[in-house]
Amino acid sequence: VSLNSDRIYITLTDEARQEELEENGQIANTGNIWSQMQEQIQTGSGDEEAERDPDYYTGYVNDYTLVERLDEAGVEFKSQPADTVGQTLLELFLTVILPIGLMAAMLVWLMRKMTKGGGVMGIGKSNAKMYMEKETGVTFQDVAGEDEAKESLQEVVDFLHNPGKYSGIGAKLPKGALLVGPPGTGKTLLAKAVAGEAKVPFFSLSGSAFVEMYVGVGASRVRDLFKQAQQQAPCIVFIDEIDAIGKTRDSSLGGNDEREQTLNQLLAEMDGFDTNKGLLILAATNRPEILDPALLRPGRFDRRIIVDKPDLKGRVEILKVHAKDVRMDESVDLEAIALATSGAVGSDLANMINEAAINAVKHGRQVVSQKDLFEAVEVVLVGKEKKDRIMSKEERQIVSYHEVGHALVTALQKNTEPVQKITIVPRTMGALGYVMQTPEEEKFLNTKKELEAMIVVALGGRAAEEIVFDTVTTGAANDIEQATKIARAMITQYGMSERFGLMGLESIQNRYLDGRAVLNCGDATAGEIDEEVMKMLKGAYAEAKKLLAENREALDKIAAFLIEKETITGKEFMKIFREVKGIPEPDETEESSSTEREGRIVMKDGE
Predict the structure, then answer these.
(1) How many other β-carbons are positioned within 10 Å of the β-carbon of residue 285?
(2) What is the distance of C-alpha 462 from the center of its chain?
(3) How far is the C-alpha of 603 from the C-alpha of 243, rounded, in Å?
(4) Residue ranges of the alpha helices (H) in 162-256?
C-alpha cells in the first residue's frame, strides 16, 4: 500500500495476484476499491509488495485509523508526498499573481483617466474645453437682437486683428469683459462669436469647474488654465457662471476658504498677464450684484456688457435668424409674432420657431404658417392643449364666464390692450382657460391709469364668478397674485400711493433672475403697506363688478358663445359686444389694425 495526499495505491502480493487471476481471469483495475481493501487489511493479505505498478487505487479517504490498522494487519505500506509543484504554481498564480496584476492594471487605468479628467492625479489641471479657431462655428452674423453688445465686442475683435492700430495711440486691449444678463439672452453665444470672428483659440469652462472637495485645487486649476492660455496666445478664455467662484468675500468664520483662495488666484493671474500678447478674459453671469468688487474693478473686467432681453426690433431679428432655415409661408408676419412675445429671450424665440415647424409637420403641411407660429407661442407660454381633460358642464360655465369677465372688463376700459383670443381649452401648464391680448406697440413705461386698469382686468374673472354664480372658485389664484404684485409695486416702488408718497419701500434683488422684492422698512410700516394694498385691491374689485353688472347681457351672450365654440377670436368677441351695445361695425382696415393681431398672454387661470 502506498499513501499520498490524494490517492491510495494498492499492489497485490504474488499469492493474492494468483488468486485474483484464478477467480476473474484478470486483474480488475477498477477505480474505488475501498471496501475490497478493507477486507485485505482484516485478513492480513498484501504483506509483501512487489516492485511493480499498483493493481488498484482509490481516492483519498479521511480515515485517521488507516495507518494504525495497516500496521496491525502486517501490511507493508509507505507514505509518498504528492507531486504538488504544478498544483502549487497554479494556486499561486490564481490567488496571488492574477489579483495583483488586475489591481495594478486598474490602478494604471485610473491614473491615466484621472490625469486627463482632473482626477486625483490630475486634480489641479484645468479641464477647459479648447476650440481651435473656426471650431466654434459661430460669428456675429449668428447673433441678433443685441446690437449694443455686439458693437462693444467688435471693438475687442478689431483689437485682436489690428493691435498696432490701437497700440500706436497708446491704447491697450481690455483685460476682460463681463457679460451680464438674464438666462437665455445669448451670453455664451456672444463669447463664441467673438472667438469665431477673431479666429483665435477659445477656452471655455464653467465657474463651478474650479471647485472641488480638495483644498487648493481651485487655485491650481486657475494657474494651469492661464498657463495653457498664455502658451496659446492670442486666445480667448470664457468663464461661464463666474459667480460660482467670484462671490463677494467676507470675514465671517463660516466663509468658504477654498472658494476665496480660488478667487484670489484668479485676481492675481488677471493682474499678471500681459495684454499685448492678446489674451482676453470673457465671463458671464446673471447675478452681478454678488460679485466681489475687486473682480469688477478696471484693470480686470474693464467692460461690463449688458445682454438684456431684446426689444421688438431685436425679437424680429432673432426670429429671422432662426427662421432662415425653416420653410415659411409667404403670409407669415414675424413682426406680429414679435409683438406677441414681449419679454421673451432668444432661447424662447428659437424654441417657438422649432415648435411651429414641428406643428406644421404634425398637420401634414409643407411650410410653416402664421397659425403654426401663434400655436407655438401658446405652447411655449402656457403649454399644449390638454385634450384628455374633460370638464363638467358646470365647470365649463364657470371657466367661460371667468374668461369673458376678463375680456369684457378689458373692452370696457381705456388704457388696455385689445383682446385677441379667448379660450376655455385646458393647457398642460395648468391653465383651464386664458385671454390673449396684443399690444398695438411696444411700451417701456406704464402710467398709473394703465396699472390700475391692469388690476381691474385681473380681478374681472373673479368678479364675473360672483355676479353670475353668487360664489367664487380657486380659478382666480393666478389673477389675485398678479393683481397683488402690481398693487404692491405701485405703493413700494413707483411712488403711486397717496399715503406713502415718493418713499421707496422695496428694492429688487436678483434683477436678472426672479427679481425678488425685499422690503426696506420696519414691521409697522410693512403692516401699513398691506393695508394700502388691500384698499387698492378692494377698489379695483368693486370697479370690475360694477362694469360687469352694467353689461350683464353682453357677459351672458359672449359666455354662451364661448361655451359652444370653446375658442373665439377677438373679432368674434367684439362683434357680439357691439351687437349688444348697438355700436356700429368699424371699417375693415380699422378693425384689422386693432384686433387682428394676436398677442401675449396676460391672464392665465389654473386649477
Answers:
(1) 22
(2) 36
(3) 35
(4) 163-167, 187-198, 217-232
Instruction: Report how far residue 489's alpha carbon sits from residue 517's, in angstroms, rounded to the nearest whole number.
Output: 9
CA atoms within 13 A on the CB side of 263: 21
Lowest mean pLDDT among 90-94, 230-234, 411-415: 90-94
- The rounded distance, in Å, linking the Cα atoms of 510 and 289 is 8
- Respond yes or no on whether the N-terminal peptide bond of residue 234 is cis (omega within 30° of 0): yes
- 355 given a catalytic annotation: no
Beta bridge partners of 419: 437
Which is nearest to 340 in space by CA: 596, 572, 591, 604? Answer: 596
What pLDDT band is residue 443 in, cutting at 50, 70 and 90? confident
Give CA–CA dist 340/440, Å, rounded.
10
Interatomic CA distance for residues 541 and 214, integer angstroms: 59
Q: Out of 37-51, 54-68, 213-227, which region has the weakest mean confidence (pLDDT)? A: 37-51
403 or 229, higher pLDDT: 403
Burial 32-68 (b: 16+ CB within 10 A, else e): ebeeebeebbeeebbeebeeeeebbbbeeeeeeebee
pTM beyond 0.85: the answer is: no
Single out the catalytic residue among 241, 269, 403, 598.
403
Number of neighbours of residue 82 by Cβ within 10 angstroms: 12
Nearest to 397 by CA among 433, 421, 435: 433
Which one is predicted more confidently, 186 or 6? Answer: 186
pLDDT value of position 382: 83
Q: C-alpha grid cell for residue 239?
A: 468663464
305-310-311 Cα angle (round to 5):
125
pLDDT of 601 above 60: no
d(CA 345, CA 189): 13
Give backbone dihedrals phi and psi of 186, rounded to 5 degrees, phi first. Answer: 105, 30
